[in-house]
Write a structure and sequence with these properties.
mainly alpha
Length: 102
């Protein structure tokens, strides 16, 4: 159980990622199959064949790009900006030599 706890942050972040990726793959493959039926291409689209298509990866990477950008903005803003009274923040008006920051 200690091993699970030691890697709990990685698991907490990986499991939702894998779940959302899997759901995106299934829904994207379902939509591709519907489009194929509309265009009278009855070959069918399975999730495993759909994962090798360029359109799937194009849409996935566009989604990830926006997620990574918003996460980076939050991280950078949390480093440089301060909120008065926040327990995670140093005192807003305190000089660097009083807060331990160099």
């Amino acid at each position: 159980m200690l091993k699970v706890y030691e890697h709990s942050l990685g698991l907490a972040l990986s499991l939702p990622f894998l779940l959302s990726f899997g759901l995106h793959l299934l829904n994207s493959a379902r939509r591709a199959a519907e489009d194929a039926r509309l265009h009278e291409n009855h070959g069918g689209v399975s999730p495993w064949s759909h994962v090798s298509e360029a359109q799937f990866w194009f849409v996935s990477l566009q989604n990830w790009q926006s997620e990574f950008m918003s996460t980076a903005v939050l991280v950078l803003l949390s480093i440089y900006l301060r909120q008065k009274g926040s327990p995670e923040s140093k005192l807003v008006a305190a000089p660097h030599d009083k807060t331990g920051a160099s």
